[in-house]
Amino acid sequence: MNKLICIFSLIFSVFTFGQKNTTTSEEVKQSLILKNNLEKTSLVKNIPLKNIGPSVMSGRVVDVDVNTENPSEFYVAYASGGLWYTINNGASFTPIMDNSNTQNIGDIAVDWKTGVIWVGTGENNSSRSSYAGIGILKSLDKGKTWANMGLNDTHHIGKIVLNPNNPNEVIIGATGHLYTPNEERGIYKTIDGGKTWKKTLFINENTGIIDVAHAPKNFNIIYASAWQKDRKAWNFKGNGNGSGIYKSSDAGETWQKITTPQSGFPTGEGVGRIGLAAFNENTIYAVHDNQFRRDSSKKESKEKKGIQKDDFKSMTIADFLKIDDKKLNAFLKTNNFQEKYRAENVKQLVRSGVAKPADVAKYLETANSLLFDTPVIGAEVYLSTDGGKTWKKRNKDFIDDLYYSYGYYFGEIRIDPNNQNKIYLTGVPLIASENGGETYFAINGKNMHADHQALWINPNKSGHILNGNDGGLNLTYDDGKNWTKLNTVSVGQFYSINVDNQEPYHVYGGLQDNGVWTGPHNAPMDTRWHQTGEYPWKSIMGGDGMQVQIDNRNCNIVYTGYQFGNYYRIDRNAKKKTYIQPKHELGETPYRFNWQTPILLSPHNQDIIYLGSNKLHRSLNKGDNWETISKDLTKGGKKGNVAYGTLTTISESPFKFGLLYTGSDDGFIQYTNDGGGSWSNISSTLPQNLWVSRIAASKHKKERVYVTLNGYRNDDFTPYVYLSDDYGVTWKNIAKDLPLGAVNIILEDTENENLLFLGTDNGLYVSLNKGASWQIMQNGMPNVAVHDLVIQPEAKHLLIGTHGRSIYKTDIAQLQLYSDTIKREALTIFQIDTIKHSKNWGNSWSLWGEATTPGMDITFYSSKKETYNTKVLSADDVVVNETEINADIGYNILSFDLTFSKAGKSKYLKKNKKELKKAKNGKTYLPKGKYKLILESKKEKQEVIFEIE
Predict the structure, then answer these.
(1) What is the pLDDT confidence band of residue 329, given thresholds at 50, 70 and 90?
(2) Which of 268, 408, 883, 367 is nearest to 645 (CA)?
(3) What is the rounded distance in angstroms from the CA atom of residue 414 to the CA atom of residue 583?
(4) DSSP per residue over 683-727, as a string?
(5) In angstroms, rounded to a whole number, what is the distance separating the alpha carbons of residues 132 and 148?
(6) What is the pLDDT of residues 893-929, one digit of tens each?
(7) What is the 3 state secondary structure string of 69-134?
């Protein structure tokens, strides 16, 4: 009987936690309907989220579209930050997609004659954080409303091209799914404004269309570039036989491949991403990310300076022992070998057979260095002057230091519409050529970010250029000699955030390609810093900013770093950075570090740090020395060019030192109760082979632990959220009523064990009952990816780190008070903090300045929809102001400006013989004293006292 029960339990677990396949477009469609309905009924829909920036570092721009008749009017599309509009040349921007179901964009197109906007959702860069979209969106009213025009399963849109003479005729280039094969990719065409679509070009389920260009004066002549790629969590291949250039002579109805072996353009397995630019019907340029290997016999001879890493790979033991100690020591020191590895020691290890000469090179190789060491041809430019029949390569030399090894991330080429020999290439730098691509020069400004993604050239004024890059938007009027930065909107792509405990507390965060920044949570997000010269947020680290830990005894000691585990201990007072990444022993297999390597300060002792590679490392002295306290906690990695089989999350129980959990990118969750002495795998009954995005030991119960799994890298958008009350022996699914959206983080509240917060790739949720049900919490925040969450316990603030719209903040004090009692009560008013009176209320220091205005938010919970009469009474029961509020079920907020109503002032003065001065803004504010606020309906009445002191 017991055996039968065990078998049934196992079957039930597999059935309950069974992993889904790729999410279908119909499932996404139905889930968005569900989410929109849940938003209307959310118990917390009235709790506001405030964006606190920062903005100066911006985020990745993917496209710009400019009104050529009035170039001060344009739209800017951000990869995961939505669409923004300006009418004043970028002095200010307005977001126009905040009411849509996604903020993820691949390309945009605007018909300026009619004002119709087309948005291809889903970023076309195939990076590790390129989020999928929901098809094609269209707006007829400049972004006030959006209609989904279909192609929902394309996921990522490469290009949108409009017929300039017929706005209903549109060509779409779809790249398709990022991680899995699918059929909905290729070229789609509509002639009825998107009501119906016809697929006119399909290569195969792994090849999509990344770029489309038409002859400026003849829409019948269209060129399209196909791109075969295959991204996995452990490998990215950005090339294949399916890649090439196609041509249509009938406005996209039929297509012919024009990059044949006889054409002069590369063909075969090494053909990568291709960007296109047409000057006229016959003249077309193509920039190609050539993934064929370079011919080693044609490499430029360079004089070697000292010993090189690769020398050791084929070196014999005898030759190694002959190396001069001074030269070997110079190499070891220059390459940051640990102190114990000096010439004499290393030679002894080789003599004794513990290590080999090749291990010296191996010691320095990581997933990151191997990626950059890949010897491919890289960027090259081709020109056809006969409509694509033949192609000639323009660059005689390698275009080095443009793409490095990740040309898949760029692939844009532009022609000056007034000069067919003037071309521009986007890459890590922005470069230009005046001789049709034979030679190049950089046009980067010192105030420009690297990694360029978008470029617009004014057809009516050469040299007037808008450039979009990973650090926002730049503008030049002199062809790149001088640039103006147009970063005024908060579109930062945060990977992680954290807070300290100083006053006011500061927020820290690591961003995609924009380093690590910190600033006060209450810093004003305006342009005053242009006058003072002091931007309130400060950069403390470059690269791709990663996780941040702050010593809670001294907020000037910060641990953070950049991709692949390159972490530092920063003493901000001393302006000192100490590199602290753990290193493997010589001869040992190098550690594998995740792109976003997890790091954790022990809650029991802030000198103790945990850091994860494929193993867990611990330092007892702030990172100066490390010990490895585990075996390999992953499945062992996979062959590929991306580090895989790595730890992604670490958590230590606040109840016991050494009670640790880890999660890995290949789905393993491990547990130790003795500081790493022994480990147990506790993920066998959960869905397998998913990224463990967060493991969180409970703050309220020693045995409790939460975990979230993420299927994004399988194009699986199912929310996987689990709770265990027995150290992970058994798990309970707590994601049952959540809309689709891969989950990045779960956060347990610091005060209320039933209060949970959840960040997904499409928004924020809260549970008031430990995951039994979930509420959408996005008042003031669009549908954007939430990567990280943290609570500042003293302020009772929740901070939300988004990957596209910077950081949001909300007060959760009243949420922390939620209980079954409140749920049962018809009406509950929460206590109001004492307000500090000011004589400046309603006044300004200048006739031309804005008046200082106070405000008070009254939060209450109503168990039903109800209209409440609201009265504010003085200590002697005079009604000084009153209003009415239509309450929703759940939390409601009534804002009161602390003024007398006209009738209230008159009644008060009759009973109180004192002077009430009217402020300069015409309002009379309440004087110091105690007041009573009453909420009253036909059946219910509640009151609360507050004080102005």
Answers:
(1) confident
(2) 367
(3) 45
(4) -TTSPSS-EEEEEEE-SS-TT-EEEEEE-GGGT----EEEEESST
(5) 15
(6) 999 999 999 999 999 999 998 899 999 999 999 999 9
(7) CCCCCEEEEECCCEEEEECCCCCCCEECCCCCCCCCEEEEEEECCCCEEEEEECCCCCCCCCCCCC
Band (305; pLDDT cuts 50, 70, 90): low
Of 936, 739, 928, 693, the C-alpha closest to 834 is 928
925/566 Cα distance (integer angstroms): 55
Q: Is 855 exposed, middle or buried (0-12, 13-18, 19+ CB in 10 A)?
A: exposed
Type of residue at 840: N
Assess whether pLDDT exceeds 90 at residue 11: no
Residue whose entry in the numeric block shows the structure tokens 């000084």: 880
pLDDT tens figures, 419-442: 999 999 999 999 999 999 999 999
> Which residues make Cβ contacts (< 8 Å) with residue 589, sequence separation at least 6?
none
Whether the predicted pLDDT of 4 surpasses 50: no
Question: Could you tell me the two tokens for 907?
Answer: 């009644």
Pair 600, 546: CB distance under 8 Å: no
Q: What three-state secondary structure class fits 903?
A: helix
261: alpha, beta or left? (left if phi > 0; alpha if psi -120 to 50): alpha
Tell me, yes or no, if the pTM score tops 0.90.
yes
Q: Residue 227 and residue 177: Cα distance in Å, rounded?
A: 12
Do residues 108 and 101 make contact, with C-beta atoms less than 8 angstroms apart?
Answer: no
Tell the residue number behind the tokens 């080789």, with chain if given: 350
Q: Is the model's pLDDT at 349 over the cut of 70? A: yes
| Tokens found for residue 454 | 């978008």
- Tokens in use for 90? 């970028």
Contact 618, 660 (CB under 8 A): no
Angstrom distance (rounded) from CA 625 to CA 581: 10
Residues 270 and 288: beta-carbon distance below 8 Å: no
Query: Amino acid identity, residue 791?
Result: I
Give the amino acid at 385: T
Cα 203–chain centre separation: 31
Helices (H), 17-56: 25-41
Residue with tokens 């999660």: 663
* Per-residue tokens: 416: 């000056």
Helix (H) or strand (E) holding 62: strand 61-66
- DSSP code, position 315: -
| Cα 663 to Cα 650: distance, rounded to the nearest angstrom | 7
Give the span between the Cα atoms of 130 and 906, in whole angstroms.
61
Of 694, 740, 734, which Cα lies nearest the Cα of 134? Answer: 740
What mean pLDDT is reported for the chain? 94
Query: Which residues, at least 6 apart from 915, have a Cβ–Cβ distance to it below 8 Å?
Result: none
- CA pair distance 590, 702, nearest whole angstrom: 35
* C-alpha separations of 938 from 620, 933, 935, 941 in Å: 64, 17, 11, 8
Helix axes 325-334, 343-351, angle to 10 degrees: 100
Q: How far is CA 385 from CA 281, 397, 663, 792, in A?
A: 9, 21, 55, 62
Residue 776: beta bridge partners?
765
If you ran DSSP here, which 8-state letter would residue 26 be given? H
SS3 letters across 568-628: EEEECCCCEEEECCCCCCCCCCCCCCCCCCCEEECCCCCCCEEEECCCEEEECCCCCCCEE
Using a 10 angstrom Cβ sphere, with 0-12 exposed, 13-18 middle and 19 or more buried, the burial of residue 274 is: buried
Residue 431 class from Cβ within 10 Å (0-12 exposed, 13-18 middle, 19+ buried)? buried
Tokens, residue 407: 């040309």
In the beta sheet, which residues pair with residue 760? 743, 763
- For residue 900 the two structure tokens come to 């007398």
pLDDT tens digits along 48-62 = 999 999 999 999 999
Q: How many residues are given for the chain? A: 949
